[in-house]
Design a protein that fits this description.
Elements (H helix, E strand, L loop, with lengths): L6 E7 L6 H9 L6 E7 L6 H7 L6 E4 L5 H11 L4 E4 L5 E2 L3 H11 L3 E5 L2 E5 L5 E6 L5 H6 L10 E3 H6 L11 H9 L4 E4 L6 E4 L5 H4 L1 H14 L7 H20 L1
Parallel strand pairs: 1-2, 1-4, 2-3, 6-10, 7-11
Antiparallel strand pairs: 4-9, 5-11, 6-9, 7-8
Length: about 260
């Protein structure tokens, strides 16, 4: 494969020392090699930086300083990115070895895209064991606004010039900055699925942000949907209220 196309991967990090080595190795071991790798650490106080520094000669940019959170860290990385396509992988998630290769192949075939994603994904636990494999087919922007807001961030890449055009990630979004970015990018380009099998692992464990702040997560989703044009009565918006109700019912049943 022609490897003239530079791809940038950003890892936002904060106190994920138990997982970040697996994340780093999943990037360094990609079959596609023309990758700029950037780690933005928000001032970790655990073993994170000891792990990161083991690989400092293989990581293009390492920043270790206090930031305003995950969204701010990703934006810092994206603004330093030199790749035609950019993406991020969180410091507790992993990319499978051929992830970037699949993305570049589709980008060469369909260069008009704004988003290149894999509709298949794998959920893993704290030990890296597979919990389940799942599929989310996302055909267009309208589908996200009106039917189902779920996106697959792990293994997704975005055209850098369009990310810059839409103003990067909205740093007011601390939970679903990915959904908001997708909705804004899809005003300017298409979305393409890159594979028929999973190319990333999303780690679900007790400290995952979507686990520890479900009510805030659902509220943020609703705000993002409405601000991007979703109707209050759309299935996507109604789904947030339904899940929110389930969270409260589950809470009160435990009392």
């Amino acid at each position: 494969m022609n490897e003239n196309i530079l791809i940038t991967i950003v890892t936002p990090s904060y106190n994920q020392g138990q997982f970040i080595e697996e994340t780093i190795l999943s990037v360094l071991n990609q079959t596609y090699k023309n990758i700029q790798y950037i780690i933005i650490d928000g001032g970790s106080t655990d073993q994170t930086m000891n792990v990161v520094n083991k690989y400092k000669d293989q990581i293009d940019i390492i920043i270790h300083e206090k930031d305003k959170g995950q969204t701010d860290a990703i934006n810092k990385g994206f603004k330093l990115a030199k790749g035609e396509l950019v993406g991020w992988i969180n410091s507790d998630d992993i990319l499978y070895a051929d992830c970037v290769e699949k993305v570049v192949k589709k980008y060469i075939e369909e260069p008009d895209g704004a988003i290149y994603y894999n509709r298949f994904n794998t959920m893993i636990d704290a030990k890296g064991e597979v919990i389940k494999n799942y599929e989310k087919n996302i055909p267009n922007r309208k589908y996200l606004l009106s039917i189902n807001y779920d996106v697959i961030q792990q293994g997704s890449f975005y055209k850098k010039e369009l990310v810059k055009k839409v103003g990067y990630l909205n740093d007011k979004n601390h939970y679903c900055m990915d959904l908001d970015l997708w909705l804004r990018l899809l005003n300017y380009g298409s979305i393409y699925n890159v594979s028929k099998c999973s190319s990333a692992g999303f780690r679900m464990w007790e400290e995952t942000k979507t686990n520890t702040g479900k009510e805030k997560f659902l509220k943020n989703i609703r705000e993002v949907l409405i601000s991007n044009g979703a109707k209050y009565y759309s299935k996507s918006v109604r789904k947030t209220y339904w899940y929110e109700l389930k969270v409260y019912v589950k809470y009160f049943l435990k009392l």
